[in-house]
Amino acid sequence: MKFAVVVFPGSNCDHDAYYAVNNVLGQDAEMVWHKDTSLGNADAVILPGGFAHGDYLRTGAIARFSPIMQAVKSFAAAGGPVLGICNGFQVLLEAGLLPGAMLRNRSLHFRCEHVHVRVEHTDTLFTTSCNVGQVLRIPIAHGEGNYYAEPDVIEQLERNRQIIFRYVTASGEVTDAANPNGSAHNIAGITNEARNVVGLMPHPERACELAVGSADGRVIFESVINGVGGHFSRTVPTTVATGSVVGVLEK
Amino acid sequence: MRTRVFVTLKPSVFDPQGTTVTDALHTLGYTSVKDVRQGKYFELDIDATSTDEARRLASEAADKLLANPVIESYRVEVDAR
Q1: CATH number at residue B69
Q2: Would A246 be classed as within a structural domain?
Q3: B10: closest chain A residue by CA
């Protein structure tokens, strides 16, 4: 399976993502520069963490105008798997590929630590190999991960089962103390209505080997590798309707 | 043409920076300051033939880039010639 890892000026987890996909999971990964206009023959796209364009103005605000984002939008609209990690999630929000926005962490501190997130739904392209309620121990490293959306948007996300990861305790309980940044409803990651685009603040690519403290992040990549494999169009129709994959992929 | 854009968080959005500044002012004795909201201020020097045109361009820039409509609102002022 071929992954495209988009590199913005200021991306700093692009090599981590490349290493996880290529060296740990044995897939093909290719770096794609933000000024490129094509994703080539990629089967999945990763927008990595970092500080694209220095995060000047707002996180992801300038990155969304990078030429490659047109290709990412077309790829996502065709049902292709797109994973935004940390800054990549922020870019997806600014680009309108996912709803909501990020505010400064409630504490105003940059938080860099391992947290626990609970998998809420397995019918997205990046969670098919997970179990519902599975708790993953994955690191975060961000100053602006305080997810915000208008209350009616949050309600819609809950109703459509689009909240995919929540910050929880080690035993899987949603508590305020387990919320590292003040995110609404302890949101750590969400998906779009078609469930092929996923954004999350924690870094699964930094948790793919026990040598670095946790291998819990592997399952996110394994999901898309096992579920989508060689080419996304084999499993996801290019005219995927809202919610049409629900039931097919849910365990 | 000197054009100013003020970007602020919507009233419904929690502003942890503003809250911290409020606390700091209270520590300094400015207890009459009830609340602080922190925002962004942009000065645009626009090559335009009328204030209306400058205002239109600045609003377009704010819609596209300077403000995120999910969390922020903005106000445009143009210096009268």
Answers
A1: 3.30.1280.10
A2: no
A3: A150
